[in-house]
Amino acid sequence: MSNHETLLVPVELVHPFFFAKNEKIILDVEVLENLYASRPFLYETAFFSGVQAVKPWEVQEKSIPILIEEWQKVNELLEAFFAKRERIHVLPPMKKGISLLLELVYWANGLPVVLSNLDFDQLAIKPVNLSERLEFIMKKPSLYHSYIQLAELISEMNKQFVKQQAMKKASKL
To answer: Quick one: 139 and 93 in the same domain?
Structure first.
């Protein structure tokens, strides 16, 4: 039987696009012991709430490929909705895609996501003009151009992460 814990969304994750103040999240404690990308900000919720869990930002070589794999599923869904011009269905997968992007950016930099202060200046690896591009996407997430921009950001971030990993390995040789 699963062990569930209901937690208040930590202040670090309160952001009008994702979580309201005083919103609650139900955590499956057993899920927190493994890496999954199906539920956005799951590990940050545990971390900021003091609940024992995997810290994906400390094991980027394992966690980033899981995020990219999850993005591919979300991307297929978004492609299908936009191809059929079913914009009314795109908000939930776009929100998930944006969440995956944020996890990708922060985790690749060895940090948990902090939604309450989306400041990318201190991050070493990030796409060009990330703040402006993300702001555009979050203002109008159901636009096709927002989807294209999101896909480009994830692709750019993944390339930068792969490059960083290659440079790390080369420096160890």
So the answer is: yes
Let me know whether 13 and 66 are in one domain.
no
Contact yes or no for 63/125 (Cβ under 8 A): no
Q: Contact, 30 vs 42, CB < 8 A?
A: no
pLDDT at 156: 96
Residues contacting 61, CB < 8 A, separation 6+: 165
**Residue 18 included in any domain:** yes
State whether the Cα torsion 13-18-24-26 is positive or negative.
negative
What is the count of structural domains for the chain?
2
Q: Does the pTM exceed 0.85? A: yes
User: What pLDDT sits at residue 1?
Assistant: 41
> Which residue in this structure is represented by tokens 């079913």?
86
**35 and 69 belong to one structural domain:** no
Q: Say how far residue 144 (Cα) sits from the centre of its chain.
A: 20
Those residues of the chain that have pLDDT short of 50 are 1
| The pLDDT of residue 135 | 95
What is the span of the domain harbouring residue 163?
60-172
Please give the radius of gyration of the chain, using alpha carbons only, rounded to the nearest integer. 16
